[in-house]
Amino acid sequence: MRVVVDTETRSEADLSERGLDIYKNHPSTEVVCITVATDNFLGTASLIDSSDGREALHKEMAALGLNVISPDVAIATIRAASVLVASNAPFDQGVLACALRVDIPKHKWSCTAARARRVGLPGSLEAGAKVLGLPEGKDKEGNRLSRQLWKPRPTWTKWQRASLAERKKPDPGPKWFETA
Hints:
Layout: E1 2-10, H1 15-18, H2 20-25, E2 30-37, E3 42-46, H3 51-63, E4 68-69, H4 71-80, E5 83-86, H5 89-100, E6 109-111, H6 112-118, H7 125-131, H8 140-150, H9 154-161
């Protein structure tokens, strides 16, 4: 069975600054949701720990018309796959192995970004869609909202980076945006 998989994560570690190896192994890195798709099935599972956050995310996903499934179903679907397809597969493979202990051998992964580059196309979904003249690329609003949920709130990040002497108040408020 061929399964397309996409993971959304969040972490105190900045992926663009620290790189994938540090990001995926950082203790704060967690999988927020996983989407899996086969020829007959499409589902998205929420994995965040906060019950308030999970409930809010379930409502957001249901409002978007997504088929909300349990994390167990998503992980079972991934484990049952003979081939896992992902854009930037090393990211999905790494965070699944480190954050969820779902270790899938490399030979089962197929990376759409690598396949695109092999034929001279850009590796990113957005750039590839533009070059091919496709009417849709990445959903800009969805991408903006998910990026907001991936990173700690700016007030928390600023407080975390400040020295102990510079911290004006001990509690900067919630670390994460739990709703869009």
